[in-house]
Amino acid sequence: MQILNGFQHGINLGGWFSQGENSEKHYREFVREKDFVTIKAWGLDHVRVPIDYLLLESEGGILIENGFHWVEQCLQWCRKYHLHCILELHQVPGYTGIFQAEKSEFIQNLAFQARYISLWKEIAQRFSQYRDILAFELLDEMPEADMEQAWDMFLLQAIHTISDITPEIPILLGGIYRHGICRTPKISLPSSVPIVFSFRFYEPFVFTHQRARWIHRMRSDFHIGFPETMEQYRRSSAAFNKMFLTPFLYCKPDDTIVNLLEANIEKIVEIAQESQVPLYCCEYGVINQADCKSTLEWFTCVSATFEKHQIGRAAWNYRELDFGLTDFHMRPIINQIVPLL
């Protein structure tokens, strides 16, 4: 397996420039320089930073200089504390996330696409001086199987736009529908560009997202631990959403849940090896509704599999957004979790 050097052990800074309040006070206080000191002290080598377009441009497409200042500040702290950084566009005009009604509008609207390409061009030009510590991730969680071909073709345009400016910076590509296993882009990869396949890992989903208020049909009183039997996870998954059953396709009925984790990661490892590109897990973690003992067991199992295949990764999330590793609910186990990141 090829390795993405400098991006092996990381943490997401979700909620800072994305999924948070769009205000100077929030940008100044949600993440501070001392947090980069903590992240470095944890032994991590990078941060992944989701960005909403409204940090960098207005609804009318006018660039916001102070937003670029905040990204610059982040990169300066990364350089000061010897951390690498992934900048990821999390929301763009016409696309604000997989659970939103307008999720397919972006890929069908030429004006939105032009703004997206222009914004990436601006990002690449402004931050090219950080090429030694930087990687770009093109978009968060592109949805819908019927958009796959259109999305894959659009990726090529974005790749060439960025690589014409900063050919050394790695570009992370995820597939449709939540960066799922085996949904990597089906395009002819440019040999001159450092491409990385990215994916998310939250399996079994009914465990890592139990009681999540944004998941359709998820009960607020539901609870399940880890590890439990395959049958318990299969039955619970089917009760909420049959799409949660997809990971069970890659293992045998009599396997354990640990076998399921390994089988699913091994499947995407195989795909990355065939394409001869590094593999990176851009998000993984457990919601704060799970009990601490189960959360620690899950991180232990997943970390072991990542280490086995030398997969770089960034845990979701440093603070808040229901998954915060520095939040109160994690205090009993945080000292045991940190070495697993």
Q: Radius of gyration over alpha carbons?
A: 19 Å
Uncertain segments: none
- The helix fraction, in percent, is 25-40%
Q: Give the N-terminus to C-terminus distance in angstroms.
A: 19 Å
The pLDDT mean sits at 90
Strand content: 5-15%
Decide which structural class fits the backbone.
Answer: alpha/beta
- Count every helix, treating DSSP H or I runs of 4 or more residues as helices: 13
What is the ordering of alpha helices and beta strands?
Answer: EHHEHHEHHEHEHEHHHEHEH
If you had to describe this structure to a student in words, what would you say it looks like?
There is one protein chain. This protein has 341 residues and is α/β, with parallel strands linked by helices. The chain is built from 13 helices and eight strands. Strands 1-2-3-4-5-6-7-8 form an eight-stranded parallel β-barrel. Strand 4, helix 7 and strand 5 form a beta-alpha-beta unit. Helix 6 packs parallel to helix 7. The longest helix is centred in the C-terminal third of the chain and has 19 residues, at 257-275. It starts with 8 loop residues before the first strand and ends with a helix. The mean pLDDT is 90.
